[in-house]
Fold this protein.
Amino acid sequence: MFMKEATITGKVGLHARPATFLIQKANEFNCNIWLEKDERRVNAKSLLGVLSLGVGKDETVRIISDGPDETEAVNTLFELISSDFTE
């Protein structure tokens, strides 16, 4: 299991468009990936799950992964979030 924390910096938080980018990227990996905010964990490959977290601007999420490509998955999603979804 591998984990990193990332801060959402977009003006409106993790809304539909960046969430879609995150999910598309997460689905490129074979491992299980979750996003966690305030002790609530959701599947990072699920649009409804990610949106249900209600992540706003300057809030922190944990990216957690478990599986064969867990480190690469977490680092890739961390970079996507850090770039404000411009990659």
The chain is about 35% helix and 25% strand. The helical segments are 16-26, 47-52, 70-82. The mean pLDDT is 95.
